[in-house]
Amino acid sequence: MFRSKSGGAGSPKAAGNGALAFVFITIFIDMLGVGILIPVTAYIVRQYSTDAFTVGLLTVSYSFFQFFASPLLGQISDRYGRRPVLLLSLFGTAIGYFVFGVGGALWVLFAARIIDGITGGNISIAQAYIADVTPPQERSKAFGLIGAAFSLGFIIGPALGGVLSNISLAAPAFFAGFLALFNVVLGYFMLPESLPPEKRTTAPLNIANVNPITGILDVMRKPVLPILLLAVFAYNFAFAGLQSNFSLYTLERFQWSPNQNALLFSVIGLVGIVMQGFLVRRLIPIFGDRRLATVGLGLMALSFFGVAFIPEGWMLFLVCIVMAVGSGLSTPTLTGMISNSVSPREQGSILGVTQSVNSLTRIFGPLWAGFAFDALGMPSPYWSGALFILLALGLVMAYRNATRSPDPKPASA
Asked: Is the pTM of this model over 0.70?
């Protein structure tokens, strides 16, 4: 199972630009499936429960199990290669979508998200794959490709989800499942291995290796890295809260339909593609990861305040464009800084730990957002989210002061 289909694919040269292009396609298809569900998830849940907290719990169920599974998947990929773990993860995603589409009861929806969470190492393994085949000075730009794939999926996905919802609320989930399954088949025949045997970890797995708490604590003992991980936690805590109930927010406050939400997410995705697919790759060599992360987090904080206090629904388009610009600057640069802080043998592990931290934010962020939405008022998840992003901004500035070394310079042509 753990042998690559491509005999010579276990080297960075063999897994070069073509493999990066395939990873881009893989993440695009994956995020297309996620985007398809965004406009309809709140409406599906409302068939069984009308409170925002339940919508948040559905997101939490996925993230809770992903929190425990991601370090294990990262450790396995360090030992046996990225390719088999990525394919397994994508297959689990397909099964989760099919179960979600079947639905019929609230517990079935939760079971679907749990299945996806247990196998949900797609992003961290894709990041490790990119780290395998790119030099440190180029990683943030390569991680920007993942962000561009995210954004492209968010352009097409929500719009497609809005169209498919006219057939039935379950149709987007089934379509996403078939896309994920197609991705598995495509990857089986086309994706080469990126981690050659001589670069793999040979130490045996033990309970300490796969315990996410232990992994996080180990990383927290490293110099400087705790600052970055805390910044990632604060930033994604706010973002996960917004994502979990944003469609409910637009429904309750502005009476928006799934199609209106789909249009907004498509605009966000378009801006994200321009940022992460083109602009950020050109800005990193000029300004460096740290400055761009600082500017991006500042824009994110402003946009969260905007979401909370705008008086008219159409203004969300302006505010969310600013949000997409900020996210396009901060997401790939934060990931690049973390990746560049460890050795090649630790890429799967550190990015798996980072994914665990992100999973924690997708546990506590939606729980907070759902509680705040119901108890403190509709705008409260967003102005409080702005405060967390300001905390992330302060941590990145502290990281810059703690290291005081220049950003990695781009490789010469």
From this structure: no
